[in-house]
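Friendly challenge for the regulars: who can give me the structure tokens for this chain first? No prize, just bragging rights.
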Amino acid sequence: MLTKRSVPSSYFTSQPWASGGAAEKIRRPKKITRLPRVLSEREVAKLIGALTNLKHRTIMTVLYSAGLRVGEVVRLKAGDIDSSRMLILVSSGKGRKDRFSILSPVTLETLRQYYRVYRPQKWLFPGAKPGSHITERTVQKVFVQAKDKAGIHKQATVHSLRHSFATHLLEAGTDLRYIQELLGPQSSKTTEIYTRVTSHDLRRIQSPLDRLVLK
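First reply, four minutes later:
Bragging rights claimed.
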């Protein structure tokens, strides 16, 4: 057995790993950037259309149409809907900064139907316990059930609706700066990932196969 006593000290200091020479040459693996899971516009329509429960349908509509996080939609209050300015106030979201997101006319009409039936008081989407809002877990379950019912086999989570919102806006020509404002506090690098997901420019590229004359 080799020990420090039986081996000259020069042996240890001469080894590449002792001086750091070999270690310095070892490259760290590049961080893998995962592209967000995005549903197509047709898939979003199928998912929302699969919901027959008005409350659940309204939640998914608000999530997608305003690009909210699940933690934000469950904490919406009835007074956060500003129909006069067509805005939704998102209070104390990620980063503890309030912001506004858009209120679509279709979402407003859905919310009005919801109001007539449920008459929400404090929380826009109250939970099972008196005085509480609906839980994030419940919303996640609703998404999974709707996805299965709609026959969507693509891997996706409820957060995919937020990714889809951003990607679809970008495909429609919305400036990335406005999308960043709607999504709320996050790094510009995070938002720029959506430029790698959009198929708007990719659809313009012709495959070389299309220029071949196949027999």
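DSSP finds eleven helices and three strands in the chain. Residues 205-209 have pLDDT under 50 and may be disordered. Your move, everyone else.
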